[in-house]
Each structure stands twice: as C-alpha cells, then as structure tokens.
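Reopening closed ticket. The problem is back. First fold of the pair:
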Amino acid sequence: MAKTASKSTARKVAAGDKIYLVLNKPRGVITSAADDKDRDTVYSLLPPDTPWVGPVGRLDKASEGMLLLTNDSEWAARVTAPETHLAKIYHVQISVVADAILLAALEAGVLLKDGETLRVSRAELLRSGEKNSWLEITLHEGKNRHIRRMFEARGIEVLRLIRVAIGPVALADLAKGQTRILAPTEKLAIDLAMRR
C-alpha cells in the first residue's frame, strides 16, 4: 500500500495535540492496528510521521469509505455512542432491483435468524440497473455488519458498501487510501450534531 497523504496531514503535531483525521478506506483493508494474517491495515495508509491515532468505529474488510481516526478517545466514544444519534450514511449496491416494499422493510426492521431485529433510519433508492440497485442507507445506531446482515437475512447480496458521510461531514472527493485532517469547522459541526 502506498503511504501517501494530502499536504494537510504533513504538518508537525505537538505532543498533547488532539488529532482528527479522515481516511477514505479502500476495500480489502482492515480496521485494525495489526493483523495476525498479515493483511493490510488502515495504519499502512497513514503518513509515516503520524502520531498514534485510533479508528472511530469500524468498517469491515469488504467495506470502504469514510473512517475517522483520532487520539481523542473521549470524542471517539461520543461519536460512536448510540445515544448521540449521529447519522452515518452509506451508499450500498445490492444484487437486486430495489422497490418501495424493500425500502419500507429496511426501515420497519428485518428479523434475523437469531431473533434480533435490525432496522435502518432511512433507505432511499439512488439508481437502478437491470439487475442491481444503489441505495442510500442512513444509520443512527450501527451494530456489527448491520447493513450486510439485514440484506443477508433477505437473501440479497451486498456488492459494494461505501460510507459517504458521518454526521454533517461528507467524504466528498478524498481519493481512496488518502488521509486529510478534519477541519475545525467540520469537527464543530459533528459536535453540534451530537448535541441534538
């Protein structure tokens, strides 16, 4: 993996500074500091001089998109806490042509084999082809493999899953594998969104 980053991440960070980064995680990279199977981790994508940061939440190996990293563990815990109701927005390509019934079912809740019911806050059709669809899914409380498990329970394959925004901050045009510093205005916007 190339260890490249935007100029904004290259600035020197003083000891004790709080660091907030945005990473566009590529598919196939795991959200972990180390891996016993020697797979690429998100840390292989950070600039070599980056001080220690930890991921804010997770994206599984097959998922891609926006991942926050920080050394502010208290802030990270607030961002991931269900009670903050901070929206996480995903673009999801599925192996069927979605209809209004499927979208309503995702919002109403899908019963899994283990008896757990998972739901999404919002499901919207972005576009459809002849055999698949892209949906925009919003979660306020994400559990492990939340979206994938919902579709698996309905016999639908997830072809791609990309997190495109956390709260009011979007991934935008940050290239895959690239990192940038979360702007102070963006951090403030996330903080304000968590207070609602």
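Second fold of the pair, where the issue appears:
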Amino acid sequence: MKSYRDLIVWQKSMRLVTQIYLITKGLPKSELYGLTSQIRRSSISLPSNIAEGYGRNSTNDYIRFLQIACGSLYEVQTQLEICYNLEYISKKIFNGIYEQSREIERMLNSLIRKIKKSN
C-alpha cells in the first residue's frame, strides 16, 4: 500500500462525507450553526484521522487515530439519527447512509484488530 488513499475504508469515508454534505444542504437554515455544522465536522474528522494516523511513524499512533476516527463515526451516526428523529431526513435516506456508516465501522474495527495483531 503506497498511501492512505489506497485504503478502501478511507475511500468509503470520503464518499460518506460527500453524502453528508449533500444531505445537510437540505437541513433548515436554523440548524446551520448547530446540527449542520456539527455533523459536517464529525464526518470530515473520519477520513482526516484515518489519513493522519497513516502518516504517523508509530503503530500505536496509527491505532489511536483510527480509534478517534471510530469515535467521529459514532458521532455522525448519532447526529444522523437526530436528523431523522426531527424529520429533517426521510427513513430511506437515514437507512441508506446509516448502513454505509456501519460498513465503515466494521472496516475500521477490522483494520484496528489487524494492526494490533501484527504489532
């Protein structure tokens, strides 16, 4: 692997960020500095931490950044559910993007386990 860009989990995380931005365009203007801002920051944190951890010269740092990425993903999942509960997004949109996030979650956890075993 030459770069973090080769990681499928990073690629899927980038697609999730794009979808979050498209979804949040439709949120009420009153949420611009609240939920919209928060979910965007959380989603951006996900691939950013995967990339930053990859660039570290320490396996322990890499694992720590992947765990931070997991935390950001859990934030995104929670914020998506809030959007759904407030009826800002439909059940179909929620289910689709939530399933994407669960796939990323499984991939991150698998990557963390793999790195821990090889360490």
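Update: turned out to be a display glitch only; the data is intact. Residues 20 and 40 are 7 Å apart (CA to CA). The mean pLDDT is 96. Please close again.
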